[in-house]
Amino acid sequence: MKEVETQDPEEPRDFIRDIIRADLAQGRCDSVVTRFPPEPNGYLHIGHAKSICLNFGVAAEFGGRCNLRFDDTNPVKEEHEYIDSIQADVRWLGFDWGENLFFASDNFETLYDWACHLIRGGHAYVDDLSAEDIRAHRGTLTEPGKNSPFRDRAPEENLDLFARMRAGEFADGTRTLRVKIDMTSGNINLRDPVLYRILRATHPRSGDTWCIYPTYDFAHGQSDAIEGVTHSLCTLEFEDHRPLYDWLIDNLPTPSRPRQYEFSRLNLTHTVLSKRRLTLLVQEGHVAGWDDPRMPTLAGLRRRGVPPAAIRDFIHRIGLTKSDNRVEVAALEHCIREHLNRSAERRLAVLRPLKVVIENYPEGQSEELEALNNPANPDAGTRQVPFGRELYIDRADFMEEPPKKFFRMSPGREVRLRYAYFVICREVVKNDAGEVIELRCTYDPQTRGGNAPDGRKVKATIHWVSAAHALRAEVRITNHLFTRPDPGAEGDFLQDINSEAMSVLEDCRLEPALGEAPLGEAIQFEREGYFCLDPDTKPGHAVFNRTIALRDSWAKAQAKGGN
RNA sequence: UGGGGCGUAGCCAAGUGGUAAGGCAGCGGGUUUUGAUCCCGCGACCCCAGGUUCGAGUCCUGGCGCCCCAGCCA
After folding, report:
1. Mind giving me the DSSP string for A26-66?
2. Could you tell me the distance in Å between the CA of residue A522 and the C1' of nucleotide B66?
3. pLDDT tens, A367-388?
4. Is residue A477 within 8 Å of residue A504, measured between CB atoms?
5. How confident is the model over A35-64, as pLDDT tens digits?
6. Tens digit of pLDDT for each residue in A442-494?
7. A275 catalytic, yes or no?
8. Contact A272, A488 (CB under 8 A)
9. Which nucleotides on strand B sit less than 7 A from a protein beta carbon?
10. Which sign does the torsion angle of CA A145, A149, A153, A157 carry?
11. Annotated catalytic residue: which of A77, A146, A166, A265?
12. Would you call A559 exposed, middle or buried from its count of C-beta atoms within 10 A (0-12, 13-18, 19+)?
């Protein structure tokens, strides 16, 4: 992968980094430790990229470290497949956690001890209330909650009960361990939140060792403290949890004192970035899988051919704040094009073939023409492209009765075949249905390479492929997964799925050099866009995905005029 | 009507009392063997209303709007 590094030389500036700089300057910490804490219950998406780039980026900038920690506290939703995919995706994005791989589940024993510590201090109690009763006692947003009748059990009884919860004496859901804070707090997270629940489910890592599992609130901050995390960066919805986060750290014998800071999560137009919705798309078969090229997952973007550097650049450009936002996908697409324009090699490929016969080109003859691999990068060198009497051009590059501003091929008009010759369409061949099936053209041998000795100009250069040498391929055209910029804003988001998000062109013709296209690396098909070989490719059946189209002001003008 | 946040251009986003950066999108124009790229140009009564100040996007007061929280999810 020939990636172009475009990291802005200037360091990112944002409120989080300002806080860290101040903490360092004022001695509140002497090094920086962050962590990226995914729950292994789904694949990573571009929203996670924001957190990954932040956590790993900050650690690198300040000479600290960033841990990869799995918050694996809910075995009913978590799977090993996700533990593996998440690691692969973080690496692909370009980050390395070295030896610092952790699991919240590795702390289960410590967490159990700390729960007992709270019980002994009279700060936690085993509650026999059912889930419904707990909800009923919790109150509402405007009314305070009521204390559980079990709230004042003696520490000894609580200790005994908690041990028996662990020992499996009670059925799932029949008891919880709760921390005793304040049932009247305006912050609902402080109304005696649950620390432990009974859950008989096989954990991906600890198996059946436990039948009680700590909740997020009792595992996350504690794991941070155990790992020595200094800055625990998370998204805005956890802001309300910070008082609880701090309360627990204050009341537990933790080895360190992490601080939580919140930033706003990324939202993108024309897609969804909630794990719930993405999981639904996969499970209900609306897409082919987590790595479907239409998906905003890192796996999907990778399969589409999006370079990781483009994603990093995108994240860098959108900034980091606490404001709710929905970034236009166009911003991402711009980053992808910008990186690919410099890094991707160019090839000729005809997506919707229309046969062209050069009548004055000798039958049975062929020749090789030199073509630039990347006009944006001379170091990419050149290649030979075969030319012959019979060619294919794209149907969109010919119009029998062209409108005023159409400059491509039409009867009697001279155009350039890229890197080859000037040609003029002399005759249009149609089938019985009146459809154009072939063009009879003549070429000017004097224009070999694409320039006329007499200096005459043409208004268009089109791409082509020699029929005799062409490779066949299937090309998948990917578009936005949703028609609306804000899927689900009015009704069910599934109703907003773009039925044309994936269309397949079965009979494309490629220049021979494309036979050596590497898997997953985007290549520019000139005048069309960037494409990459898909893993669905089989011997004799190449499949390409379109990473992204080139900008097309002609199509845009057409669309505008057509309205 | 409880608690926590957020409001600067169509979309992101700088700005930390001294007279509104930058990017994306859009619109013009130039170059061009990709209608691409590249280059040039064009956009703000800073949510509103008062107040403090020589001076307010920045400070104060009062409104308004939007987001999050009532999982034994994270």
Report:
1. TTS-SS-EEEE---SSS--BHHHHHHHHHHHHHHHHTT-EE
2. 40
3. 999 999 999 888 999 999 999 9
4. yes
5. 999 999 999 999 999 999 999 999 999 999
6. 999 999 999 999 999 999 999 999 999 999 999 999 999 999 999 999 999 99
7. yes
8. yes
9. 1-8, 10-16, 22-27, 33-38, 66-74
10. negative
11. A265
12. exposed
Q: In the block, which residue shows the tokens 């005696």?
A: A192
CA distance A485 to A501: 14
Q: Is the separation of the CB atoms in A340 and A547 below 8 Å? A: yes
pTM, two decimals, is 0.96
Strand B contact at CB of residue A131, distance < 7 A:
yes
Which nucleotide's C1' atom has the smallest distance to the CA of A235?
A: B68
pLDDT digits (tens, 9 = 90+) for A153-204: 999 999 999 999 999 999 999 999 999 999 999 999 999 999 999 999 999 9
Nucleotide nearest to A197 (CA to C1'): B72
Q: In 10 A of CB A497, how many CB atoms?
A: 19
Query: Measured from the CB, is A460 under 7 Å from any atom of strand B?
Result: yes
The residue with tokens 């009015």 is A490
Q: Is the CB of A396 under 7 A from strand B?
A: no
Nucleotide nearest the Cα atom of A144 (by C1'): B2
How are the residues of chain A apportioned to helix, strand and coil, as percentages rounded to the nearest 5?
Answer: 30, 25, 45
Q: At what angle do helices A46-61 and A15-25 cross, to 10 degrees?
A: 20
Alpha-carbon separation of residue A543 from A2, A160, A509 (angstroms) = 22, 63, 12
The residue type at A508: C
Q: The complex's ipTM?
A: 0.97
Q: Separation of CA A540 and C1' B69 in angstroms?
A: 56
Is the pLDDT assigned to residue A236 strictly greater than 90? yes
Burial of A125 from C-beta contacts in 10 A (0-12 / 13-18 / 19+): buried
Minimum-distance residue to B24 (CA–C1'): A331
3-state secondary structure of A561: helix
Q: Does nucleic acid strand B have an atom less than 7 angstroms from the CB of A198?
A: yes
Nucleotide closest to residue A174 (CA–C1') = B72
Residue A275: Cβ within 10 Å count? 18
Is the CB of A140 within 7 Å of strand B?
Answer: yes
User: CA A312, C1' B50: Å apart?
Assistant: 45
Alpha carbon distance A68, A178 (integer Å): 28
Cβ A118 vs Cβ A252: under 8 Å: yes
Give the position of tokens 């490719």: A537
Helix (H/G/I), strand (E/B), else coil: A293: coil
